[in-house]
Structures are given as structure tokens and as C-alpha cells.
Amino acid sequence: MNTPPTSATEEQIAELVRRFYERALQNDSLRPVFEAAVADWDTHHRLVQDFWSRTLLDTSRYRGHPYSIHAQLPLRPEHFDIWLGLFRETAREVLPADAADKAISRAEHMAESFKAGMFSFPRYEGPKLWKSAL
After folding, report:
1. Hey, what domains does the chain have and what are their CATH numbers?
2. Whole-model pTM?
3. SS3 for 29?
4. Cα 81 to chain center, whole Å?
5. How far apart are alpha carbons 91 and 95 in whole angstroms?
6. Which helix (H) or strand (E) holds 67?
7. 50 vs 54: CA distance, rounded Å
8. Tens of pLDDT along 56-88?
9. Is 44 annotated as ligand-binding?
């Protein structure tokens, strides 16, 4: 009996990243954010592949905290919705079903966490000097 694979391969993760960014760069809302933030696409792809390798294959190639990088970008809540739609579609095309489900679940969790951190509170703009009412 041939059972389908449940985990992704490094090649599938690389393909996921490649296809996702092809789609994201065709999107009029996401393209300007990515183009302004990414100077070296090869390095960015490797970093994102390392992240998904750690997430899906439990490797130790990625170390870091993606929130702090994303929190500095000029993102709006709708960017995350578009990003998730493209990511879900790509993950389901490229990865085995169980791996796609795991990747999508992680992406959804990240998106909700990032949105909560970035948009739940007004951005801090430094100390305010109040005029005295006296």
C-alpha cells in the first residue's frame, strides 16, 4: 500500500517560497511593501526557506524573531489577509496535505499575532509634551 507523504521536503519548501513570492509580487497591494523591504531576493528566499524548514521539518537553520522585522514595515491589516490567501493557495498546491495544514496553521497564527501586536494599540510616537492648563 502506497501512503502519501505527510511531511514536506526541502525541495518542496523551496518551491513553496518561490511560488509564493511570484504571486505576492504580482499583487498590487503586496508588491510595493516587498519591493521596499527586500534588497536581496536570494538572501530573503533562503531566510524564509530556513524559517519554514524549522517549522515543518524541525531543523535548526532559522534563528530569529520575524515579528520585530515585520512590525517596522508599513503594513495594514488587509495585507495579512491577502498574504494568507496567497500562502494557503500555494501551500496546498506544493506541499503534502498534512504539511500544508501545518504550514497554514502556523501562518494563520503568525498573522493573527502580528496583527494583534501591530494594530491593537496606537503606535508609540515618543513622549508628548502637554501644555499646562495653568
Report:
1. 10-119 (1.10.490.10)
2. 0.83
3. coil
4. 11
5. 6
6. helix 66-70
7. 6
8. 999 998 888 888 888 888 899 999 999 999 999
9. yes
